[in-house]
Structures are given as structure tokens and as C-alpha cells.
Specification:
The chain is mostly helical and about 300 residues long. It is about 70% helix and about 5% strand. The protein contains 11 helices and 2 strands.
């Protein structure tokens, strides 16, 4: 019995890690936009959903090779993110943050309506070369989808770390996020930086949608997991990219074990229970500290 419990716990841990990686990626999109503009994009989860549908379109309908379809979907979502910043967010500069918040909520409704109109409400599945394959080790069964999610998250996080630490554009984005006025004085185009930030954020969300699509069927409502990702961003520290990933992992693993030890249905509110607990214990999250941003 002890061995069976150990195997069950290991399976839950693996499932929680893969789910938590998806939450963490979406949470990273929240953090990127907030650090650059001090705005919260509540359409982040819906961008993930739209990216997954675009990948389905390129791969399953247009019959693109799998890798090419993924790249096409991510680039398309990056373009959509830049367009959102240019035509929906930039005109709202100087307006109360609540107005921008309502714009992003409205964008979420628009994306869900568009997805329903274009692809319908019937769940879709994304064809992948690794679907249905498993890796067995010492009685533990790991789906290739779970492995790809974890490896994809590690690769994307490494690429982002390299981008921000070594490239001039990444350093300019960090400078603009800390002090926009000083960034403008040294010749950095803050408008351009904001547009690129929204593009990268949308591309990250699309990647999360593509990674989770083989595990969870695609439909217009899957974007609502963005609410749990928002909770993950707060738990990790709303301003820390590593914190976003850590917060996502905590919530993903917590949900799996809550489903085992708590009554049915409690796993669905685990993210919010963890969020409330963190707000009571450490309101500013795990990794972030209070910073006053100079404008």
C-alpha cells in the first residue's frame, strides 16, 4: 500500500508540474505587461486560447508541418499582441488604470466570441507527433505531453533570461520598466518597447496554449484558466518572472493533491485558497519586494 501511495503521489506531482508550468507561462505574460506598463491584461488567458486555436488551424486544417504550424501560430499571436497595444491600449495612456482593465476584460469577451464564431464551441484536439505516447519508469507512467510541457517551459524561460540579460533590446525593456522618463532621455522609444512587450506576452501565452492543447481539448472557454494564472502571478510576486513560474508550480501541484485529499470540487478553488493564504502571510508574493516605480 505504501508503494502504491508513493506511485500515486509521484504521478500527481508530475501532473501538477506540467499544469503548473502552463499557469506559470501565462502568469509570466501578466508580469511582463505589468512591469512595462503597470497595466494588468485580463485577456491573457484568452490570448492563450486563441493561440491554441491558431495552431490547430495551421496544423490540422492547413496541414502545415507540426513545427512550422507552431512557429506560425506564435508569430501570428505576437502580431496580434502588438496590434492590441497599438490600437486598444496606447490610446488609453493617461486614463485611469480601471479603464484599461475594463478594456482588457472586453478584449477577452471579443476573443471568446471570435473563437466561437470561427471554430465553434465544439472542443478541438491538436494533432501532435507525441500524442498518446508514454514513458514508463519503475511503475511510473509519464505522458510525453507532460514531458514536452516541462521541457518547453524550461526552454522558454532560458530564452527569456538570455534575452533580458544579454541583448540590447532586453536591457532597454528592463530600463523602460524601471523608469520610463529616464529611458526616454537616453533615446529609448517607450512606445516601441511597450508594443514589443505586448507581442512577447501574447507569444508566451500562445506557447502555453499550444503546450496544453494535447492534454486539454481546445474550446473558447479554456482561456478562463488565465484567472488561476493571475493568482499564480500574485503568489509568486507580481513583478518577478521567476516568481510567476514558482507561483504556477505551487498552484498546479496544490490542485492535484487537493483533488486527492479534499472532497470533490475543492481542487477547483485551490488556486484561490493558496492566493488568500499568501495575501495573509506575505502580501507581496514569494520573490518580489515592494518597489516604488519612478515615472
Amino acid at each position: 500500500m505504501a508503494l502504491e501511495e508513493k506511485l500515486e503521489h509521484t504521478q500527481l506531482l508530475i501532473s501538477g508540474l506540467s499544469q503548473g508550468c502552463v499557469y506559470g507561462l501565462i502568469a509570466s505574460g501578466f508580469v511582463l505587461i505589468y512591469k512595462a506598463t503597470e497595466m494588468v491584461n485580463f485577456a491573457q488567458g484568452d490570448l492563450m486560447m486563441f493561440g491554441a486555436f491558431l495552431a490547430y488551424t495551421f496544423i490540422s486544417i492547413f496541414n502545415f508541418p507540426f513545427a512550422l504550424g507552431l512557429v506560425a501560430a506564435i508569430l501570428a499571436m505576437a502580431g496580434i499582441g502588438a496590434l492590441i497595444e497599438r490600437f486598444a491600449i496606447r490610446p488609453m495612456i493617461g486614463e485611469p488604470h480601471f479603464s484599461v482593465l475594463m478594456i482588457t476584460i472586453g478584449l477577452g469577451f471579443i476573443f471568446r466570441a471570435l473563437a466561437g464564431f470561427i471554430w465553434g464551441s465544439e472542443p478541438r484536439s491538436l494533432k501532435t507527433p507525441y500524442a498518446g505516447k508514454v514513458f514508463e519508469f519503475d511503475g511510473i507512467i509519464i505522458g510525453h505531453e507532460n514531458i514536452i510541457i516541462v521541457l518547453g517551459t524550461l526552454a522558454l524561460c532560458s530564452a527569456l533570461a538570455f534575452f533580458f540579460k544579454t541583448t540590447n533590446l532586453g536591457k532597454a525593456m528592463q530600463a523602460a520598466s524601471q523608469n520610463q522618463l529616464a529611458a526616454m532621455y537616453v533615446g529609448i522609444s517607450v512606445k516601441k518597447i511597450n508594443s514589443i512587450t505586448w507581442a512577447i506576452s501574447a507569444a508566451i501565452s500562445a506557447t502555453a496554449g499550444i503546450l496544453i492543447a494535447p492534454v486539454s481539448l481546445i474550446d473558447p472557454q479554456i482561456g478562463f484558466i488565465g484567472v488561476k494564472a493571475f493568482a499564480a502571478a500574485i503568489v509568486g510576486g507580481f513583478g518577478s518572472l521567476p516568481g510567476a513560474i514558482i507561483g504556477g508550480l505551487i498552484i498546479g501541484i496544490g490542485e492535484q493533491f487537493a483533488g486527492l485529499y479534499l472532497p470533490p470540487g475543492f481542487s477547483e478553488v485551490t488556486a484561490y485558497a493558496i492566493l488568500l493564504t499568501m495575501l495573509l502571510i506575505r502580501p507581496h508574493g514569494i520573490l518580489t519586494s515592494v518597489q516604488i516605480k519612478k515615472m
